[in-house]
Amino acid sequence: MKAVSTIEGRAIPLGLKNVDTDVIIPAHWLKTISREGLGKGAFETIRAAPGNPFDVEDFANAPILIAGDNFGCGSSREHAAWAMLDMGLTAVIAPSFSDIFAGNAFKNGILAVELPQEQVDRLLEVAKDQPVTIDLENQVVTTPFQDRFEFEIDPFRKRCLLEGLDEIGLTLGSESAITTHEHMRQGSMPWLDKPKRREAA
Amino acid sequence: MASTPRTLYEKIWDQHVVEQRDDGTCLLYIDRHLVHEVTSPQAFEALRLTGRSVRRPDLTLAVPDHNLPTTPRLAADGSRLPIADAQSAAQLAALERNAPAFGIDYIDAVAAEQGIVHVVGPEQGFSLPGATIVCGDSHTAAHGGVGALAFGIGTSEVEHVLATQTLQLRRSKSMEVRVDGDLGPGVTPKDLILHIIGVIGTAGGTGYVIEYRGKVFEQMSVEGRLTVCNMSIEGGARAGLIAPDDTVFAYLKGRPYAPQGEDWERAVTWWRSLATDEGARFDKSVAIDAAGVEPTVSWGTSPEDVVAVGGVVPAPDSFADPSKQEAVRKSLEYMGLEPGTPIEDIAVENIFIGSCTNSRIEDLRAAAEVLKGRTKAANVRWAIAVPGSGLVKRQAEAEGLDQIFTDAGFEWREPGCSACLAMNPDKVPPGERCASTSNRNFVGRQGPGARTHLVSPAMAAAAAVTGRLADVRKLAPCQAASG
To answer: Where is the Aconitase A/isopropylmalate dehydratase small subunit swivel domain (chain A) (predicted)?
Structure first.
């Protein structure tokens, strides 16, 4: 994973609530076996409407998206995170995120910043003509107008993001603990091991 | 040893913690990993690029479902018919190649056991009580119906599980959804879960694992429980589960991957000990009276947009939250609906009976009972019944259900995800409505511009014969709830 520290730039003021991952990337784009090139299909249904915020020239290549409650709900498709990355988005600010999307965003180095609705409303206003800055180290979102909104982030995720850590590599560092657990499990719950398919009785 | 009373979720969680870090993150062991073609190719590719192998191929099972067309798969001479869509074909071929290359059991597209991954897992006895089960699909929550802790994961997590058989997670909060009383005639588990989502909201379960408790679930069949748990994610909860009991044990016994002999006896003893202890604390509790649940229909583009079939399309102003008002306005525009329209006046052109939510044998029986001796209305253009697996299909055919469906004007299909998501050839045309037994009514979910109304199998059948959303109770004498 690429290390992330500060994200600064224009923020697309989408504002919508319950943006599901079918909206972020419709299913017909999911037939790929690659992670690349999904930006073309990102937010397809929203972008089909004239005057949508993605069409505004100022927001071309904006690194930040501002949305409403429950962003990324629905399908677990990581293609949603890949599509956003491919269109240049590296952070989303919203009052809440679905659990699965938040995880997928993190694994791809996309910052999912949770702020209270009134602060999100303020940012939606500011973002129309001003940039927004997200400082991960200090866990704060700022604007050119002295707005200063602190946010919480899981300390493990923060460290991984700041250091660009490979999570699988980290876990493999615990391999002996995994093996110990497997031995324990084999003794106490042998039925969980090596399930063998056989004809139904 | 005296210990603090724990919930079912906490007991399963604690049993699977490999390591807890100082910051509260746990390394959780995964007992069962289900793999399908859409969310796995990038994970297998990453394993190749990093030179990593699959740690426990024996705990992993792969089956194709999302992309597969539901039209016949074999030619008259027994050869496999090609898949017309080149991208779908490539994705399916990748799974067919990756599974054996990494030593994983693979159920191929023409095997009798092939089906939707969440139908196959319990049906094969691969999904077990007390196990941690993951799959790159949010409806993995379904397996909570057998008392497993089951949840959907993204592709990076699929790769993580393949490589390490663990996940880095923090424990979720716990929510109790208690439903006591009895469901009325014609009210099914699908109606109940739609009703529950209407009560808690589509984000109500975010950060929680739901345990469904109370008499209604104790009396519910395993298939009904799978339907309820399946849609936990539509209430925002990554997992939903029900304490395993004799109903579950009877369902699993003798299934191909289920434990046998002495292992079976030991397993059942363990499974019985998993039920939530007296006095265990939930972070949030919701109580629902079963008697108040009606056959339920969705009217909008979020699964929380539900109403009893006797109700009307709501007005945006009837919601307190201004952002919800705006969302409702957009939803109604997309759905082509006017506030105040009685639900039963809404005509439908398409009927879909299938998906991981409602494609099991009880679902097909419930729909067939309504369809028997009737035919679809003239305005219903397209009606399909898609069994959840080849084994469900075979069972339905043995009971003559296929004949009832085809006599009623339905197409009888091969198993797969079908029209639940617009990824294979089964799609709902733009601007048309579909009474659908699937789980999501999102914008474009069943095809660009498609308008989805989520219903139970019996209600989908009622919609087919009347040509509009209809109260199944007015059509036929209703028997015990199923589906």
So the answer is: 1-118
* d(C-alpha B409, C-alpha B423), whole Å: 24
* DSSP SS3 for B399: coil
Residues of chain B falling short of pLDDT 50: 478-483
Model confidence band, residue A143 (pLDDT cutoffs 50, 70, 90): very high
Helix axes B222-230, B361-371, angle to 10 degrees: 100
Q: CA B388, CA B365: separation in Å to the nearest integer?
A: 13
**CATH 3.30.499.10 boundaries in chain B:** 8-170, 296-474
Q: What is the pLDDT of residue B3?
A: 81
Nearest to A104 among B50, B156, B263 (CB): B156
Whether B267 contacts chain A with CB within 8 A = yes
Closest partner residue to A156 (CB to CB) among B21, B42, B327 is B21
- Interchain contact, B160 vs A168, CB within 8 Å: yes
Cβ atoms B85, A31 nearer than 8 A: yes
Is some CB atom of chain B closer than 8 A to the CB atom of A162?
Answer: no
- What is the CATH code of the structural domain delimited by B173-245+276-292? 3.40.1060.10
Report CA B111 to chain centroid distance, whole Å.
22
pLDDT at B477 (0 to 100) = 57
Taking an 8 Å cut-off on Cβ atoms, the answer to whether B94 and A33 are in contact is yes
pLDDT above 90 covers a percentage of chain A that reads: 92
Across the interface, whether the CB atoms of B264 and A32 are under 8 A apart is answered no
CA of B480 vs chain A CAs: smallest distance (Å): 28
**A47 touching chain B per CB within 8 A:** no
CATH class for the region spanning B8-170: alpha beta
Domain ranges in chain B with CATH number 3.40.1060.10:
173-245+276-292
Backbone phi, psi, residue B289, to 5°: -90, 120
Check A30 against B323: CB less than 8 A apart: no
Quote the ipTM score. 0.94
* Cβ pairs bridging A and B (under 8 Å): 204
Burial class (CB in 10 A: 0-12, 13-18, 19+), B5: exposed
- pLDDT tens profile B234-270: 999 999 999 999 999 999 999 999 999 999 999 999 9
Best B15, B37, B38, B65 member to test A by mutation, with max A CBs in 10 Å, is: B38
**CATH domain B296-474 topology:** Aconitase; domain 3 (3.30.499)
Domains of chain A: 6-164 (3.20.19.10)
